[in-house]
Amino acid sequence: MQIKTNEEKRDFALRLLKADREEEVVRILEEAGLWGDSASWRLLGDDENNFKTVGAQQARPEPALVEKLINCVDARLMAECIRAGVAPDSTQAPKSINEARTRFFSSTSRTELAKGITMAITGARSQQDGMPCLTICDTGEGQTPESVPDTFMSIDKKNKLRIPFVQGKFNMGGTGALQFCGRKKLQLLITRRDPSIAAQQRSKHESDACWSVTILRRETPPEGPGQVRNPYFKYLAPVGAVATPSRGAVLSFHAKSLPLMPEDNRPYTRHMEWGSCIKLYEYDVQGFKGHILRKGGLLPRLEILLPEVALPIRAHECREGFKGHAGSFDTNLVGLRARLEDSKSDSLEDGYPASLTLNVQGQLMVARIYAFKGDNADSYRADQGVVFTINGQTHGWFPKSFFERKGVKMGRLAKSLLVVVDCTDISVESRADLFKNSRDRLSGGSLRRDIEEEMESQIANHPGLRELRERRRREEVSEKLSEAKPLEDVLRQILKTSPSLSRLFLQGQRLNSPYRSQENGQTSGGQGGTEGHPPVFKGKRHPTFFHFEKHKPGEALQRTTEHGRRCRFRFVTDVENDYFSRDRERGRYHVEVVDGPLEGRELTTSINLFNGVANWSVTIPEDESAPGDVFALQLTVMDDTLPQPFVSIAHVTLAEKSEKPGGKTHTKKEKATGDTPETDNAGAEKGEKGKGDGEPPTGIQIPRIHKVHKAEWSERQFDEHSACTIIEEGDESQSSFEFYVNVDNVFLKTDLKQGDGDPAVVEAKFVYGNVLLALALIHDQRSTSGRKPKAQEAEGNEDEPSIRELVERTTRAAAPFLVPMIDYLGSLDSDAVSQLAQTGDEE
């Protein structure tokens, strides 16, 4: 079959569009005499080494797919700008994505706006059938047949580099999805330039009003001397290929419109008169092949990667076999922030999202903290714990194990927390230092290290999170304390039988409540709450006061801070939690030295605000100061509506840094006023807070032990093979642990069923064996932590296994052997050992 007429070209494009298997696409191309015609295929970017770009993109299929969606958003923003008669790279163009969205789309309803970009999933549903296909369409500017080689099929050209209101600037991100298509890496493109935009072009061509169609594929070079070593990508360009082999043009045809967009669960139904359509064949959606819109499906995975997508996208589940009512097959992809705003009361704890600001190496970042009720976080994210965004797109993240780090100790909340850090306002140089060009993972280096350290400190000392953690601990302990106490007493006796274990684990007593509620049952920032029930805080849009805690407005504060450590201040106010992070009428703050060394200098500072309490952290440069220096700091809070800013003065004296944390004793006056060297109320990071008794930190506390039965597996993410997990808590100088042992473990059940011992004794061996094994892992981690690679050597979004993950993995592996090993080793006596040794010598 030869494709010659306009109708044949149109039918050819639609046949390729409706194909859902690679084999079907290849057959269509073979029937047209094109699959095996090497002259009809042109190198992507006209570069035989194009694999170096395609292969260096995103590491996972979801971020690669996000780049396709971002390109659609860019195309719509660009189209509206051109239609408005404004050149996108001119000074009259919007200066940011938010400005472009507000300027061109402010009056359009969300659903109507979403119909301008659609994503439909078709084809395979079950594992046996293979992978499904994804079709992404937009009614943006589109491209002419002549411009396709220099736009969609180009690499490294500066098409959008000088346009300030688009996300894609590297001209490579869209190629990353090719790596996750089927074995042959096939991708279809159908596009047409908006006629009104084409009319404004300086250069004219007879095909400018036409649709064009092409398809990308991966080829393996033939073996032999002089051949390239890597595979390469080519696209179908048969027009003129006889005269100029492998340098032809793409197929084009006339049509007023084409049925490219979906409606409900019907693909290829709604007509488009211009724009672009891309189909990814047999896309790797391993792990999220279920219904695209439901929990665990593709939509939640995309929304965490597009927390504040500039334009909504309409997602359609079009595969056969899914049941549902009208409206259950399509919905808007709006981004995580909008999704949570729509369901805040159902998904989030009261008072959240909370905000905090980070100022690291002079770069200002604003973070939102989402604390979910129960396990609701799993509906919105996969493994992400702290995500970093630019212009609403995730560029990298720390996994949720970040909250289990020793410096954070929010393991109890790890399943419920998500932090989104907006890095849009950091400098171009800092972006290059922090993120990879692929925009899906973090780089290493000092900026990442400093951000990690600041984030650890901010989360660890956030008053709202500490309060929530303690409340959940109380709720759990109150239910299980009667069971845990006898188990703890038995463990204490076991440890005392061994001198070495006693030295390791019996240095301290159990921590009862590391973060108590304040007197009268009122928690930090509260308004008359009771024990275990946080008060309702109703903040004002703008503050009417903002001053040091336990001080009158305008009253100066005296503070002694160790040289080289952060200086922390605790303020009280009546403003809303999002005051420093909201989009409109955002609060601003800064710290200036008004007297003493560094006079006139603005200092690096960060602040978190929750329910009327602001923890303000200030860094005095260690290399530009010395013990004995005295600084007068002016701390200012303002916004555009306040008639006068709130100004507070703190007189800070630098003291010698103590070798060990906790060596200071505070006077009664200091404790009463909060004017301690590092105020206890504000919290402090590791090594910054005095304990008041002059003693060094104690050791690992005797843990509480809880038995977990099958009915409780889901709470601990256990299965039949799980053995033990832990939660680490405590304060800056001391850790406490909660241990959870699976007493319905399949191997324990087997030992109980087939053995002839006392069931209670067998179970006890399993419980305490797991606890001792976990304690050994905890001790080893602490003993070797100083010899681990430094944070600045890390790259990507991965994290070292947390101590919880290490305990879970090790005890899971040891579970089949634990009770038999204890039984056998416990029965050994000196005669048996001698006999075993003699047997070994004979062999």
Description:
It is a single chain. This protein is α+β, with helices and mostly antiparallel strands. Helix content is 28%, strand content 21%. The chain folds into four domains: 6-333, Histidine kinase-like ATPase, C-terminal domain (Heat Shock Protein 90); 343-461, 2-Layer Sandwich (Ribosomal Protein S5, domain 2); 535-604 and 613-673, Immunoglobulin-like, CATH 2.60.40; 698-830, no CATH class. The protein is built from 20 helices and 28 strands. The strands form five sheets. Strands 1, 2, 3, 4, 5, 6, 7, 10, 11 and 12 form a ten-stranded mixed β-sheet that branches. A nine-stranded mixed β-sheet has the order 16-15-17-14-13-22-23-20-18, covered by helices on one side. A hairpin with a 2-residue loop joins strand 15 and strand 16. Helix 4 (61-83) crosses helix 8 and helix 18 crosses helix 19. It starts with 5 loop residues before the first helix and ends with a helix. Mean pLDDT is 82; it is low at 507-528, 661-699 and 787-793.
